């Protein structure tokens, strides 16, 4: 596809990549064809603007706009191009396309940055393939080691190290350096309804709720669905079912979030009591303590029920992200640019990982009319996307300017 300096054209170019003909949602899993195509798209868009793209050994990318006027630590913006399974168009790519478009706006304004402005793309932000959220940014900040990451397996048993190599990347080439990054700003579609309720197109982030993923393995005894008396069963599906209800109830009682969105059943036959049910809990809460207590209570109730069902429960933490408070002074300074509200989010972002690594970080949110996300129904109106581009341009001008 021919690179374009127009946000709407970029958006049209991105639209078919990885889109399901049946649901209209996106399957842009890391180190697979759609994501590889998007990496090339990004490189072409950067090249069309005269920027050289650096792609690291696992597929993270960065390109810098560094005219002669610019020196010192840079301002990095960007997001991710991968999606959840059957995800929306905006989660991730909106931040990347807006970053390119915002630099176009600054150039059209004749703005000469004092500091370099970079555009970054991080791989496997969603953790949809290997289960670890924000894996690309975790690796570049050192929050996760390559030795650990390469042993992760996807649903088909493929090691992450092999998936990266199969995508034509060479992890021994090393990871992106964040040395040049003085500040990070991620623009993202809002994944709730805060901005809708405020009747505003743009906001900034104050914090990310702590959240994580825990694998619950419920082991039982496979047996005949007809001949096994109900009282003789050790049915892990029942333990799981009660656990899903308990998780929802606990989260509601505590004002927090708990979801079982993925399960697998062995052997998954209609006429047999299953031998094993594996279910993944996604839990989020307003503080680290509240999250620990929510997950602990769900685990306790699941364990009690396993005792009654004669099943065995094992709980394994697979991806845990602590609370993130974005630099409050930075957010307050940027809010003045547009009288933007500063709002919390319950969604995870690479911005949280870079903030944890000590980089002053901010997020710009763009209104989502229904608040629906991680779904084909995720949406942002074009006018709001363009308002987001202008807002990001103003933020970059503030941070990279005199
Ligand atoms: C990422 O979008 C997450 O919050 O799961
Ligand atoms: Mn995202
Ligand atoms: Mn997401």
Written description of the protein model:
- By secondary structure, this protein is α/β, with parallel strands linked by helices.
- The chain is about 35% helix and about 25% strand.
- It has helices at about 5-15, 35-50, 95-110, 135-140, 145-150, 160-165, 195-200, 235-255, 290-310, 330-335, 350-355, 380-400; strands at about 55, 60-65, 75-80, 115-120, 180-190, 200-210, 210-220, 225, 255-265, 270-275, 275-285, 310-320, 325, 340-345, 360-365.
- Strands 1, 2, 3, 4, 5, 6, 13, 14 and 15 form a nine-stranded mixed beta sheet that branches.
- Strand 3, helix 3 and strand 4 form a beta-alpha-beta unit.
- The longest helix has 22 residues, at about 290-310.
- One manganese (II) ion (MN) binds next to loops.
Summarize the structure.
This protein is α/β, with parallel strands linked by helices and 402 residues long. The protein has helices at residues 7-14, 33-48, 93-108, 135-141, 146-149, 160-166, 194-198, 236-254, 288-309, 328-335, 350-356, 382-400, and strands at residues 53-55, 61-65, 74-80, 117-122, 181-189, 202-208, 211-219, 223-224, 257-266, 272-273, 276-284, 312-321, 324-325, 342-345, 361-366. The structure holds glyoxylic acid and manganese (II) ion (MN) (2 copies).
Q: Specify Rg, calculated over alpha carbons.
A: 22 Å
Query: For the report, how would you describe the main beta sheet?
Result: 9 strands, mixed
Helix content: 25-40%
Distance between the termini: 37 Å
SSE order in H/E notation? HHEEEHEHHHEHEEEHEEEHEEHEHEH
Bound molecules: glyoxylic acid, manganese (II) ion
The average pLDDT is: 97
